[in-house]
Amino acid sequence: MFAIRNSLKLVRDAALAVAAGLIFAVSALAQTDPLPSWNDTAPKAAIVSFVEKVTKEGSPDFVPESERIAVFDNDGTLWVEHPMYVQLAFALDRVKAEAPSHPEWKDTQPFKAVLESDMKALAAAGEKGLVELIMATHAGMTSDEFQKIVSEWIATARDPKFKKPYTELVYQPMLELLAYLRANGFKTFIVSGGGIEFVRPWAEKVYGIPPEQVVGSSIKTQFEMPDGTPTLFRLPQVDFIDDKAGKPVGINAHIGRRPIAAFGNSDGDLEMLQWTTMTGGTARFGMLIHHTDAEREYAYDRATEFGRLDKALDAAALNKWTVVDMKADWKQIH
Amino acid sequence: MFAIRNSLKLVRDAALAVAAGLIFAVSALAQTDPLPSWNDTAPKAAIVSFVEKVTKEGSPDFVPESERIAVFDNDGTLWVEHPMYVQLAFALDRVKAEAPSHPEWKDTQPFKAVLESDMKALAAAGEKGLVELIMATHAGMTSDEFQKIVSEWIATARDPKFKKPYTELVYQPMLELLAYLRANGFKTFIVSGGGIEFVRPWAEKVYGIPPEQVVGSSIKTQFEMPDGTPTLFRLPQVDFIDDKAGKPVGINAHIGRRPIAAFGNSDGDLEMLQWTTMTGGTARFGMLIHHTDAEREYAYDRATEFGRLDKALDAAALNKWTVVDMKADWKQIH
Question: Where is the signal peptide (chains A, B) (predicted)?
Fold first, then answer.
């Protein structure tokens, strides 16, 4: 009896020793910097302080895990958006690839402009021209076919300045931020003005964000059973524009609860940040990425042609959103 | 040196003993029946067999966790839908509650019929009348206000036959099935013909399904900032009908990948089951709940007034979907 009790004690002590070892290893891991590509400036401190207070049980700012929703704009927030949106580069490439089946395009704007790489004529075609390009290249096939086209393009296309695949032009500090939030029980969503079906095929691999956590603009689809095979056919009709005041609408439609943190970089993200942060009382976090690094990436804001960070920058000061100065706050960009 | 090595060995042996104990405890747990309210008939065997083959690594039917998406209709599949959809009972109660602010309703159909409990006149108002009732009771307030109204109603309303809150009239076998799938790495979604914002306020508590995993019909919302406070205002305009051919569209819009298992109970679920299962090659699962139990619940199918399980029942035979005979296959209903 004594022998058994003694053995049990031995086992218990040894188990405790193992447990202590594990706890030590875990603490050591926790102490490695989760945001190594961020300089030790105010934005990093603000992120860490927010995450610590909403995850600390018993704190007045504690938020249960199920409500830790963080939303991220994509273009210019998670990856490069200059000299043009990546999805526009995709559309232009698709026009070129499909041109042999559309002989009429060489005499019809805006297609003519694309085929002749006449960016001035393309710009003159305006938003109407843009919608025509999108419909011609994003509709008229099944959702499975479109997914395949996007996947193949994103694997081979190269950014004109960096000569790299676009998926390598995602921002390393933001990848670390996504991982840090998820490690702290957050569910991370993309809320993009771009096409939902353009982002989904690669978002899981690149950002660790599954298709069901991508919100974006969409065209209408229709269920059909040609030859008895169920398909979703992509129609040339706008369904939803997930930009500006559309972003809170898209967030509500897809997520169904208000995020507690939002990350953007332009006026297109203004309403998303307002919806997320201006709720009174509880702890919320808003952040704008300010592109200030002409050397390592691009510098643009309210003043430039691409300058859509105007009203949002005013609102940031008013609402105490954190503004990231890319040049000063990011140790590494890609 | 020898002493240290010996101590280390002791610790290792003890740790192994602890681990063995844990494994034993886990196996014992795994052997308790995860579906106790299902009789040991074909449907239960089919579910277990499907789950085992898609979760067994190395099996030709193995599906990685991220792709284990299961979709569930709500009305008649997860909870009672007789004698009328619960959401219609909500709309009728709301008309009565709001009537004092709408004196014109007592002379206007379909509101007059509701206030006089004249179900024949209500039926005569048809789908047009139904849409009018939905718009009058579901729009004209913010999304936060609507959520509060639904939450208060669902906490107090009682089913006319069972005299219980509707949330107690969910099907126990289906709750077990949801939990069993989640324990096996599935992500479970509701794909309801009913209103997305009607289901979300209570789905997490009742089914363990968070708002972001609810797909449903919707009305349009608009972002507004009255008095500087961001709100989403509910407009009296249909946005999307998540029924029949709309279900695959809704699934694609919200989930962005094809489910591997779908559960329904009516012709409204036909296309969802087709979209899920008719893909060739890989392992898929389709199930229809057939209401056959007049004593414990209701019995209805193709022949009854509420009989919308007609085309789907034919398709079940064709596509080898599992049909649950409620009376024979469910040990307990609520």
Answer: 1-30
